[in-house]
Write a structure and sequence with these properties.
Pathway: Membrane lipid metabolism; glycerophospholipid metabolism
Largest sheet: 8 strands, mixed
Number of helices: 15
InterPro entries: 6-PGluconate_DH-like_C_sf (IPR008927), 6PGD_dom2 (IPR013328), G3P_DH_NAD-dep (IPR006168), G3P_DH_NAD-dep_C (IPR006109), G3P_DH_NAD-dep_N (IPR011128), NAD(P)-bd_dom_sf (IPR036291)
CATH architecture of the largest domain: 3-Layer(aba) Sandwich
Distance between the termini: 48 Å
CATH class of the largest domain: Alpha Beta
GO molecular function, one term: NAD binding
Catalytic activity: sn-glycerol 3-phosphate + NADP(+) = dihydroxyacetone phosphate + NADPH + H(+); sn-glycerol 3-phosphate + NAD(+) = dihydroxyacetone phosphate + NADH + H(+)
Strand order of the largest sheet: 3-2-1-4-5-6-7-8
Shape: globular
Structural class: alpha/beta
Number of strands: 8
Strand content: 5-15%
Number of domains: 2
Radius of gyration: 19 Å
Family: Belongs to the NAD-dependent glycerol-3-phosphate dehydrogenase family.
């Protein structure tokens, strides 16, 4: 199985480093001016081994039969539409954690719409690029509706320090990864505003309830949400400043500027979730409030007051 990573951001580069322990890997990016140094400025301090071929030639990269799409959720559809012919009949593994704002669907649906002959999988779970690149032990979820293809991918993409657990619940796995980013922004906001760890624990717990409610309404299995791609990833991103979504939330809480060049998947996903929940008639008060916070439509204090004064009810 030949492997290429499409997207040379921090996470795509980290995956290339990890997977190159098993076999040669191609890493594609739009800007590879750093290739001569073998160190991606988006992942400083990590030297890329010679088993990784770095290229900006998409046709060369798509010679591989298995392509890991390490692209932001909001750009994935446009990218695939523009290059659909290169991705036909490939094994496409999405690592995006988000919900498309236009279509209100996850990455697997976008891939199926643009590349209907492809075999589709999702790689998700609690992981930071720096940890993976440094070879620290990491466990992820690999979701593929085709159990045979999923089993082959599980063996091909696992390494001594990267352990993959397999599921056929693609919807549950990708929704867990997308929705936890929204709750991570809320958790970061709580900490940034000085509301304390007890408030963060409440946000994580009630946020997880929201995640489970929406995901199961959309066909996910409840047990998937309690696994690595749901609760596991939620725990990681709500408790570490390595998470871009958490840091973005902190900036909202402290009213500090945030680097606009940094991709924050949860901000767009919160808006998509709010629209999706309204369409389905589901209550998602935390996600709805994160959407309003990210747009600057409400203050942190008013957001917290609104959540705390909601009608009392059973858990």
């Amino acid at each position: 199985m030949s492997i290429a990573i499409i997207g040379a951001g921090a996470f795509g580069t980290a995956l290339a480093v990890a997977l190159s322990a098993n076999r040669p890997v191609t890493l594609w990016g739009r800007d590879t001016g750093w290739a001569g140094t073998r160190e991606n400025p988006r992942l400083p301090g990590v030297s890329l081994p010679d088993t990784i071929t770095i290229t900006d030639d998409l046709m060369l990269a798509t010679h591989a039969d298995t392509l890991l799409l390490a692209l932001p959720a909001q750009t994935l559809r446009g990218f695939l539409t523009s290059h659909a012919a290169l991705f036909a009949r490939k094994v496409l593994v999405s690592t995006a954690k988000g919900i498309d704002l236009t279509r209100l669907t996850g990455p697997s649906t976008l891939i199926a719409e643009t590349c209907p002959q492809a075999t589709i999988a999702v790689l998700t779970g609690p992981s930071f690029a720096a940890d993976i690149a440094r070879g620290l032990p990491t466990a992820l979820t690999l979701a593929c509706a085709d159990a045979t293809a999923g089993r082959a991918l599980q063996h091909a993409l696992s390494t001594p320090v990267l352990r993959l657990y397999r599921t056929t619940d693609v919807s549950g796995a990708e929704l867990g990864g997308a929705l936890k980013n929204v709750i991570a922004i809320a958790a970061g906001t709580v900490i940034g505003a000085g509301f304390g760890d007890s408030a963060r624990a409440a946000i994580i717990t009630r946020g997880f309830a929201e995640m489970t409610r929406l995901a199961t309404r959309l066909g996910a299995r409840p047990e998937t949400l309690t696994g690595l791609s749901g609760l596991g990833d939620l725990t990681l991103t709500c408790t570490s400043a390595q998470s871009r979504n958490f840091r973005f939330g902190q900036s909202l809480g402290t009213r500090a500027e945030f680097d606009s060049r940094t991709t924050v998947e949860g901000a767009a996903t919160a808006r998509a979730v709010a629209a999706l929940a309204a369409r389905l008639g589901e209550e998602m008060p935390i996600a709805a409030m994160v959407a309003r916070l990210a747009e600057g439509a409400v203050s942190v204090e008013n957001a917290m007051e609104t959540l705390m004064t909601r009608p009392l009810k059973e858990e």
